[in-house]
Amino acid sequence: MKADRLISILMLLQINNQLTANKLANKLEVSVRTIYRDIDSLSGLGIPIICDRGINGGIKLLGDYKTSLTGINRNELYSLFIPTGDKILNDLGIEKVKESTMLKFLGSSSSNQINEIKNIQNYIYIDMYTWSDDNITVNTEILATLQSAIWNLNMLNILYQKIDKIKEVSLSPLGLVCKRGNWYLIAINNEIIKTYKVSSIKSATLTNNIFDRPSDFNLENHWKDSTSNFKSKIPKYKFKYKINPSILELIKNRKFISIKNITNNLGHTYVDIEFDAMWQGIEFAFTYGRDIKIIEPSIAIEELKKKATEIIELY
After folding, report:
1. 243-276 per-residue burial string, b: 16 or more CB within 10 A, e: under 16
2. Is the pLDDT of residue 200 over 90?
C-alpha cells in the first residue's frame, strides 16, 4: 500500500540521512518513477523533504525532522511481537526489558493494535527448549561478560575447555549466536575468526585493551558462510541397497534421508542413499530386515555381519 511505502521512505531517510532514488526503489521494490511520485506526495503533506542533484546528491529530510509512526500494520506487529521464547532473553538478562518495552509500546498504541498484539502472543509461541530433561543451561555471568566485551570492544582472556585440556585464549569478540539453545562466541584469535562454544568457556575476563572491529564484518553472513562451509566438509557415506519393491514408497517417504538415485535392473530395485555417518546406513538396513540388502560399501557389509553375530550371541 502507498501509505505503508511513504512511512517506509520516512523511516529509511531518518535512519540513513540520505539515499538515492535508485537505492530507495531497490529497497522498496518499486520503480524510480514511483519513488519520485512518493516524494512529491510527502512534500505535499508538508514533510520537509528535498532532492539534491549531482554525484553526491540524493533524497533527504531537512533539519532534524522526525516522525512518530502510528500506521503500523499487522505484519509489522508480527515482526516485533511474535514470541521468540524466553530462553534467549533470560540468557541475555533482558527479560525485564521486554516487559517494559511492551508497556511503552502499548501506552501509545490504538485499541486495534493492542488487540492485534494480544492475538499474536496468544496464537504463536516458539519454544527454545528441547524434549530432553537435560535442557541446555548457560553461565549467565560469562555470557554477560562476553556481551560487555562485544559492545565496548574490549579484548578478552578466556579459559576454554578442549577435549582433554583447558587452554587460555586471548580474543577480540565480534558477536554471539544462539542456535537451538546453544550459544556460540565469534571472535578473532591470532588474526583468524573462530567459533567458540560458550558452554565450554570456563571463565572470561575483560581486559583494558581495545581492539578495532573489522568494518566489513557481518555476523549473520559470517555465520551462514561458516556453517555452510562446515557442512560441506562433513564426510558423506554413500550406500547402495537392493530392496523389495514393496518398501520403495516407505523409503521415499522417510524424512531426513538423502536419496540420490533409484534404478531397476533385471527385476531388482536399487536405491542409492547418502548418510552423514556409517552407522546411520547400517541402522537403516536393520530397519527393513529381509526386505533390504546392502550392496555397497563393503566395509558396511562387514560391520553389519559383525553386529548381527554379536546380537545372535547375546540372545
Report:
1. beeebeeebeeeeebeeeeeeeeeeebbbbbebe
2. yes
